[in-house]
Amino acid sequence: MTEDTTESVRGVLLEDAALTLDEIARACAVEPEWVVQRVRTGILRGGTSAAPESWRFTSVDLVRARKLVQVERDFDADEELAALVVDLTEEVRRLRRLVGQPL
């Protein structure tokens, strides 16, 4: 039980971290405009207000953004295709956890 509690707490602490537009762009090695475009098309979350300067991103958003960047660069994929690949990958991981298969 202790191990599960520790993992839950870590997830909450990371989830509470809020990255700015510039921070998430820098962490992904992209321009802020790349992030803005994906938020405006709904591929990334975090932009809940109209002003990009006030957007905040979680660690989950950061992981997703890094996966998107990787798929776009490695396969020269457009943003919609990269989003589909990342969505399907996340769904496969979720289903494997559900049935207890190794990731």
Number of helices: 5
Parts with pLDDT < 50 across at least 5 consecutive residues: 1-13
SSE order = HHHHH
CATH topology: Multidrug-efflux Transporter Regulator, Chain: A, Domain 2
Overall number of strands: 0
State the CATH architecture. Answer: Orthogonal Bundle
Evaluate the radius of gyration: 15 Å
Q: What does the average pLDDT come to?
A: 86
Write down the overall geometry. globular
Organism: Pseudoduganella plicata
Pfam family, one: MerR_2
Protein name: MerR family transcriptional regulator
Structural topology:
Elements: H1 2-16, H2 21-28, H3 32-40, H4 59-75, H5 79-99
Keywords:
single chain, 103 residues, mainly alpha, Multidrug-efflux Transporter Regulator, Chain: A, Domain 2, 68% helix, globular, disordered N terminus
Care to describe what's here?
This is MerR family transcriptional regulator. It holds the Pfam family MerR_2. This protein starts with a helix and ends with a helix. The longest helix has 21 residues. The protein is globular, with a radius of gyration of 15 Å. It has five helices and no strands. 68% of the residues lie in helices and 0% in strands. By secondary structure, it is an all-alpha fold. It has one domain: Multidrug-efflux Transporter Regulator, Chain: A, Domain 2. The N terminus is likely disordered. The relative contact order is 0.12.
